Amino acid sequence: MSTAALTSHDATSAHASQRTAVFGMTIFLASEAMLFAGLIAGYLVLRLSSPAWPPSPDLPHLPIFLTGINTVFLISSSLTYHAAEVAVKKGRGGLIWLLITVLLGSLFLGIQAYEWTHLYHEGLWFNKGGAYGSTFFVLTGFHGLHVFLGVMMILFAFLRQLGGAYTAESHTYLVLAGMYWHFVDVVWLFLYTVLYLI
Amino acid sequence: MSSSATVFVPGDAPAHGHEGHHGHHPHQGFFFTYIWSTDHKMIGLQYLWTSFVFLLLGGLLAMGIRFQLAYPGATVPLIGALLPSTVAADGVILPGGYNMLFTMHATVMVFLVVMPLLIGGFGNYLIPLKIGAGDMAFPTLNAMSYWLYVLSGIIILASFFVDGGAASSGWTAYAPLSSTAAYNNNTQIGQSLWCVGLFVNGLSSIAGATNYITTIINMRAPGMTMFRLPLSVWALFITAWLLILAVPVLSAAAAMLFTDLNFHTTFFAALGGQPLLWQHLFWFFGHPEVYIMILPAMGLVSEILPVFARKPIFGYKAMVWAMVAIGFLGFIVWGHHMFVSGMNLTLGAAFSVSTMIIAVPSAIKTFNWMGTVWRGSITFTTPMLFALGFVSMFVIGGLSGIFMAATPVDLFVHNSYFIVAHIHYVLFGGSLFGAFAAIYFWYPKMFGRMMNETWGKIHFFATFIFFNLTFFPMHNLGLGGMMRRIADPTVYEHLRALQPMNVFVSWAAFGMGLATFIFLWNFIWSLRHGKPAGKNPWDSTTLEWTVPSPPGHGNFDRTPNVFNGPYEYSVPGMEKDFLPQDEKAPEGARLEVH
Fold it and tell me: Is this prediction's pTM over 0.95?
């Protein structure tokens, strides 16, 4: 049996195999959504069953303004990533947009790290501030790990694109990394809303 | 037959005749053939063999449990000296060690045996063959899924040897017993490894499920419409959705438990947290998990009954929709595990009703299985016996489930041996009997040889009899007031009269353990000495039986065209009594499904 027979009906073209990959990524993101749904549900239960939030008046409030700016950075990075994808689809390199996306993602992580240290010095940590501290650090920590992974994926794309790996016809990896990156951004909108705003 | 003595390489010469000109794929060397294989059949077999190893380990843990309950304080014979110091001292099982035994027995059986065997093993092996595809959609992800499973098994079992020993808060890991190490013999490291192990195991499940759904949606052969899919594929498809939606919630809960143990967060702490939150998160996963373990077995059994009754499955579409309904309802019944947790009893009533509604699709399935074999020309082969065993044991387990769905009854039997009896009737009598049926049924396809029928029947009857002798009396023990998870029943005044029954149950369990060796011996012996099977030893209709046994690399020489539904047996107006899915019906044949 020739190897061609193996793939005769499942991947007749790069387009079909990209469609399959996008489908698989969607399923995977559904499970990622359930992971965050579990974390957010836990947070809401703890928050709603607490008589006051923050549970004690001397605990610091979360910095709505600074993180609001940070949220804008993260959302912008979705737009710059989209610009990179559009550039590649038009046959250009999109290198600069990939680089800006990596920088914006890193900036988001940097500001988060600053915020964590700041809150730590004000007496909020995993083990300080009860459920308030626990939920904040675990939820933002989980999301931060996802952002870190996303930045690594896009950095990888950038490095490969230096050698011109992605063309207008073939760029499945970029599409998949993009889906992941947009997903991580959307999750952040939920987290910013429930953790900081309400 | 020189090749018959060797192990079975996909695409290598099969152990028998020369049907079809199946492929000789380029020789890939030991590493890529057996270790990092991306062929779905090899990955399926890897899952199968690995889950056998864990089945033996999990079974040994069960033997330890039964020994302790029959003879508390006695020295464990033979292997007593080998037990880790956290479990036993001088060969005598410690109370804390006993807690590790039942915790790890359940964890191993659920996450390292039943799920990988049914979903990993049969899912990987059968899905591409049954839908007419060359492989899974993402072969590399598939290999990764298997190795994550192995890694999770190593992490979970390693915990026996760490400081403090393995997790010992039960497989349900209720907080704050699990989340505060000081409450539980300082099993902090073991419980943390349990969390990490389940997290890694969850990644493996999600990777596998992503693959299954994508493959089934995108890679079906021409003519293989969704309603021509064999029921096993439907079952695995629905199971994969349950995995995608339920497993991540366990991962989230395990992550919280991990930080509670190691960073002293207070998610589940009695002060500043919510111990009940753990139960909600765990059972939001845990109840779908029950169906994750039974649905694949239901699907596999639905394949086997029509073959040996020579009749179409009764009510194909009803079977599909019943599984969809079970899968959906599984997400809204988790509270029935928590009636005694102090939850609002009005909410409890809602959970009680939603749980009882599951009896409807379950009954549809049961009656359809009976309708399938009703007035069929039945042959009692080993797979058929196990399939019938599955149906009958599932009925008993299902009925005792209704007892527990009724809140007033549950308040009485909760946390008693009645629960232990119920869970084993569905998980062993159900899932594992289904798995055994499937192993005897698809073994010829996997290895090109039949398993020995005589030893198969001995294995069936021994298992069936000892199974019932083990687990049926547990109902009585539970109603007699025996609690779960007690290391020494003889210290309780009210249980002393029941002790002879405990001894009886233990000896029956030892018998069941020994019966497993008949199976393993038969499995290994038949690799070399079984009767050559040929392509289609059971005269079955689905696509995997149209290719050589074992199928070559890439499965099909050319993509099959599918013309019929999967259960065309004893078709009126046909000479042959079955019509393969890729064969056009002759003039005048009256088909069941179009």
Answer: no
- Evaluate whether residue A183 is within a structural domain: yes
Q: By the CB < 8 Å criterion, does B556 face chain A?
A: yes
Closest by Cβ to A34, choosing from B210, B248, B266: B248
Of A32, A45, A55, the CB nearest to B277: A45
Q: Which of B428, B437, B447, B411 is nearest to B339 (CA)?
A: B411
SS3 category, B436: helix
Q: Is residue A9 part of a domain?
A: no
- First CA to last CA distance, chain B: 42
CA B437 – CA B161 distance, rounded (Å): 36
Q: Using alpha carbons, list the distances in angstroms from residue B577 to B385, B543, B560.
A: 22, 17, 21
Q: How many residues does chain B have?
A: 594
What is the dotted CATH code of the domain comprising B43-546? 1.20.210.10
Instruction: Spell out the domain ranges in chain B.
Output: 43-546
Count of domains observed in chain A: 1
Apex CA B482: angle with CA B481 and CA B487, to 5°? 155
Inter-chain CB proximity B265 and A138 less than 8 Å? yes
Please provide residue B416's backbone torsions phi and psi, each rounded to the nearest 5 degrees.
-110, 180
Q: Cα(B191)–Cα(B167) distance, rounded to whole angstroms?
A: 4
Are B74 and B38 in contact by the 8 Å Cβ rule? The answer is no
A81: CATH: 1.20.120.80
Q: Which amino acid is at B488?
A: D
User: Widest CA span of chain A, in angstroms?
Assistant: 73
The answer to whether B445 touches B544, Cβ cutoff 8 Å, is yes
Choose, out of A8, A13, A28, the residue to mutate when testing the contact with B (most B CBs < 10 Å): A28
**Angle of helix B40-70 relative to helix B95-107, nearest 10 degrees?**
150
- Out of A5, A34, A131, name the one closest to residue B272 (CB): A131
Nearest-neighbour CA in chain B from A135: distance (Å): 7
| Domain, as residue range, for A36 | 15-50+64-197
Q: What is the ipTM of this complex?
A: 0.92
Quick one: closest CA in A to B242, which residue? A31
Query: Is B249 near chain A, with CB under 8 Å?
Result: yes
Max distance between CA atoms of chain B, in angstroms, equals 76
Print pLDDT tens along chain B (594 aa): 333 333 333 333 333 333 334 444 556 678 887 888 899 999 999 999 999 999 999 999 999 999 999 999 999 988 888 888 999 999 999 999 999 999 999 999 999 999 999 999 999 999 999 999 999 999 999 999 999 999 999 999 999 999 999 999 999 999 999 999 888 888 999 999 999 999 999 999 999 999 999 999 999 999 999 999 999 999 999 999 999 999 999 999 999 999 999 999 999 998 889 999 999 999 999 999 999 999 999 999 999 999 999 999 999 999 999 999 999 999 999 999 999 998 888 889 999 999 999 999 999 999 999 999 999 999 999 999 999 999 999 999 999 999 999 999 999 999 999 999 999 999 999 999 999 999 999 999 999 999 999 999 999 999 999 999 999 999 999 999 999 999 999 999 999 999 999 999 999 999 999 999 999 999 999 999 999 999 999 999 999 999 999 999 899 999 999 999 999 999 998 888 999 999 999 888 888 765
3-state DSSP helix/strand/coil % of chain A, to nearest 5: 75, 0, 25
| Residue B334 touches partner A, C-beta closer than 8 Å | no
Q: Which distant-in-sequence residues (6+ apart) come within 8 Å of B533 by Cβ?
A: B16, B444, B445, B447, B448, B449, B450, B549
Cα B514 from Cα B522, distance rounded (Å): 13
- Interatomic CA distance for residues B104 and B166, integer angstroms: 8
Task: Decide: B418 and B490 in contact? Cβ < 8 Å.
Answer: no
CB contact under 8 A, B214 and A23: yes
Query: Which of A12, A35, A142 has the most B C-beta neighbours within 10 Å, making it the best mutation to test the interface with B?
Result: A35
